[in-house]
Design brief:
mainly alpha, about 75% helix
Length: about 120
């Protein structure tokens, strides 16, 4: 799998990130680092513990990483969850669906990146 194919698999914007970072090697480096970022697990742990402030920070971090890497689908869902958690707002109707969408988008991204990583011998 090529890096561009990885982006197609994870519903990302390869051309946008290449336009910004201008080096496939650099994009690859950061895409592979995404697998070791602890923000997603922090989000899950914080939500389970009811710590909405920490969950907000984790969702916001995921949103920022996805914006920088052009992970369009995960960016969209994490952005919506970030806003739902902003300022310690109490849980709202539909929030569980937002969380489920972040989980699905994250799983899709992770699966695509792991498949790419296997192809590059990482």
């Amino acid at each position: 799998m090529t890096l561009k194919e990885c982006y197609v698999s994870l519903n990302g914007d390869y051309d946008e990130v290449m336009g910004r970072l201008r080096s496939e090697r650099l994009v690859q480096k950061f895409v592979l680092k995404f697998l070791n970022d602890g923000s997603y697990q922090l989000l899950l742990d914080s939500l389970a513990a009811g710590d909405r402030d920490e969950a907000f920070r984790a969702a916001h971090t995921i949103k920022g990483v996805c914006a920088n890497l052009g992970f369009t689908s995960l960016l969209g869902s994490s952005e919506k969850l970030t806003e739902a958690l902003r300022d310690g707002k109490p849980a709202q109707p539909g929030e569980e669906e937002l969380i489920a969408q972040v989980k699905a988008d994250y799983a899709c991204a992770r699966q695509a990146i792991e498949a790419f990583q296997e192809g590059v011998g990482g």
